[in-house]
Amino acid sequence: MSTRSLTQRRSNWIAVLGPIVAVLFATEFAAYLLTEWPTIAIDPAFFQHTGWYVLEGGVPYVDVWDVNPPVPFAITATLAAIAGGNMYILHLLSVILTLLVAAAGVLLVGWVAFLATGEDAAAVAAGLTMLVVPELFVLPLAGVWAQFYALFFGVLSLALALRDRPFQAGVAAALSAGSWQSGVAFAPLVVGIAYQRTGGRGALRATAGGGAVAGVVVLVFAAAGALVPMFVQTVIAPLVAGSPYTLAERVFSILLVFGYGSVLLPVALYGWAYTAVRDVRTRWWVPAGGVLLGLQVLVVDLDGSTDTFLWLAFVALGVAVTVERATAWRSVATDRPSDDATRTNRYRWKVVVALVAGLIVLSGLAWNVNSPPPKSTLETMEREAEPDEHLPISPDDANSPSMRTVYWEQLKPETCHYRLSWTEVRWIVMTDDRLNAERCDGWPNRIDRG
């Protein structure tokens, strides 16, 4: 089925998915304020502190070593300016914004699924599929995570491309890549969709949109004297200092993240395969995105559940295609019923889809809260599959306060390695860098890949 716009037919999917998402995220936020405020995780503390630090004169990638692209720092710097230097207000604003971005990301996936299939049931199923990984609506309560913004901007770029807004789509795709490196996968998809729908002119406009964002970033960091360290830390370091892994470990990690929701993976695989074989001319980008981001979680980067979010969006779209096909089969199976009977059958089928998806969402909560025996077995298998890694130093060797202390006490660290992630430790070992380096502002003298 060719891609349809919202103006071509009345849409009911948002009336179903919207309230579910709103109630779920609002309930989580209320529970957090009542029971856990102001809990903050290490990654959000780092992003939010860096945003505040920028306003105090700190320069990312020079005074702060980090592998993440700059968009999250721009976001938290803006929030820090609004908060007026109050770290509690900054954290509250960060939680609220990240919750809104995560919720919007779920709805955007539903919208893209509707644009791609024209089916309300497919859109609802896609949105609910996003919720099978509970961290999607739990982790925003800890503050800013780069992957949530990469997901939001990336799926937004697909929606804009499908709505024939190639320049804006290119901008959104660039912001996704600028939030987290794996967001770069959206760029070729958006350019390809634009070319498919409006020809070379559309592809050029999409490229121009992405180029405009990249140009601004280059100019800003060149002016701050941080262009070279930004490139080294966000491009070179992740490629050479990433976590060692085995394929078996990554497979077990994926199963742990999805839990009982893993039953949807073959459903999505069918949707990708059907599209690749029967509808590749119009919806090629669905299996292409599934493959690109599937490679990301299998061989590039999978250090936690947040690293699966972009791939999860294409799993959801694969499920949407399968639901579209199932709805079509149901319609064909009926022997020319009356219009009323057809509408009744389609309504019942949509209810069944929503109920099944809802049960899978609830199963995600059960998987995470109750830690059933299959989960502990997978955790054991994952540990056994991890490669041995021996490093001469560890994050504990740094003479720096904890990241939470740095955040709440608004410290201006004396070294640029005060966060000291494991990737950072590997980089220090590979480059003969020092734990107590005051600035991280140059090209490394040596990179030991072995």
Structure explained in plain terms:
With 450 residues, this protein is mainly α. 69% of the residues lie in helices and 0% in strands. It is built from 20 helices and no strands. The chain has helices spanning 13-35, 42-55, 71-83, 87-117, 120-130, 135-138, 146-162, 166-179, 186-198, 200-223, 227-240, 247-258, 264-278, 280-283, 285-300, 309-333, 339-370, 373-385, 403-408, 422-431. The chain is globular. The chain starts with 12 loop residues before the first helix and ends in a 19-residue tail after the last helix. Mean pLDDT is 88; it is low at 1-10.
- What's the main sheet like? none
Mean pLDDT: 88
Query: What portion of residues belong to β-strands?
Result: under 5%
Number of helices: 20
Low-confidence stretches: 1-10
Give the helix level as a range of percent.
Answer: 55-70%
Q: Tell me the series of helices and strands, N- to C-terminal.
A: HHHHHHHHHHHHHHHHHHHH
Shape: globular
Structural class: mainly alpha
Distance between the termini: 50 Å
Tell me the number of strands.
0
Instruction: Characterize the quaternary organization of these chains.
Output: single chain
Radius of gyration: 23 Å
Outline the fold blueprint.
Layout: H1 13-35, H2 42-55, H3 71-83, H4 87-117, H5 120-130, H6 135-138, H7 146-162, H8 166-179, H9 186-198, H10 200-223, H11 227-240, H12 247-258, H13 264-278, H14 280-283, H15 285-300, H16 309-333, H17 339-370, H18 373-385, H19 403-408, H20 422-431
Helix pairs in contact: 1-4, 1-5, 2-3, 2-4, 3-4, 4-5, 4-7, 4-16, 5-16, 5-17, 7-8, 7-9, 8-9, 8-10, 9-10, 12-18, 13-15, 13-16, 15-16, 16-17
